[in-house]
Amino acid sequence: MSLSVRPQRRVLVTKINRSQSFAGVNSSADRPFRNLSPFTPTVSRKTGSRVSRMFSMSHKSPPPKVPQPNRLDEVYEALKKGLTAYLEVHQLELEKLSTQIRESKRNSRLGFLYDLDKQVKSIERFLRRLEFHASKIDELYEAYCIQRRLRDGAHNMVKAYSTGSPGSREARESLAEASKGYKEYTENMCLLENELESQLGEFHVRMKGLAGFARLCAGDQYEIFMKYGRQRWKLRGRIEVNSKQVWDSEEMVFLPLVTEFLSIKVTELKSLANHVVVGNVSCETKDLFAALPQVVAVDINDLGTLKLSLEVTWNPFDKDDQPSAASTVNKASTVNKRFSTYNQSPPDTPSLREQAFYVSVHQAGLLRRHGQW
């Protein structure tokens, strides 16, 4: 899978073609700058924890000063596709488990059937929770669209009163009222945008390594710095003699953002005072809302001779709102393991009626043996 590159200013309208080698990355020389608020220092990671997690505030970040309706539309469409795919994957597993239960009821151990039934109920609960989450996002987006239409109407009124003759007292009062409404609707849009951002879940990013063809040599050391809004992840790695890569950090949890892009900077550590920046790229993240884990390859330099391989898993719920155990279906290894287990033929054991019959026959034989029949 590949992510979309940030659009350049010289391109007016263009469709980005995605490929297996990451659709593209901007170098630090021609990457456009965006007017964003300055970043604040990051929260230090806990020592001894394999998975690093960083928060800017309780819900990602404070409300923005200026709403971004066009960008929110894009993120909402990508989020809806991801949630639909998530529901389809779990619904497919639910159907397979239900079919397996129907086929196994006649000749299966009670423990086997109980385990399947327990997992079916767990997935059903998770599906209801996921549907409620999707409906909540729809309600937030509808409220956002209403505030956007009101804001556009207030903007047109302000523009009309400003171009007219503001000499009369009624005209000035109408202009002040329209300006007040425009400010109020803008604040409401910012709050709804921030609330919708808090419902985006988590991106679990796993470092898989660098791929450099003939570029990587034994003994090379690299530093990778990822910046996503106010979230940071810095890790260092070394290339071993057997081409094995050793990194001081393996996983990171990023909270998805609406208006920010993922910035990746790769530096080759030559010596104490000689560090060479290999590439500094910025990537789109709205394509990461997917039901199953995705492996992305990022072109670090312009020629594509050095790539960064990452495995990204999207969880629609964050840590404070963890789903049930059924959410592990979004991991491909778990899906394959479950399906291989459930596709096995059940053991050929007698049913409850057969067991009762065998017990009665056995008891009758004992009574005959002791002369009590």
TrEMBL record:
What is any one of the record's Gene Ontology cellular component terms?
cytoplasm
Per the record, the coiled-coil ranges are: none
Q: Which residues does the UniProt record annotate as the domain FAM65 N-terminal?
A: 16-362
**Family annotation (InterPro entries):** FAM65_N (IPR031780), HR1_rpt_sf (IPR036274), RIPOR3 (IPR026136)
Please give the Pfam families that the UniProt record associates with this protein.
PL48
User: Could you say which protein family the record assigns here?
Assistant: Belongs to the RIPOR family.
Q: What is this protein called?
A: RIPR1 regulator
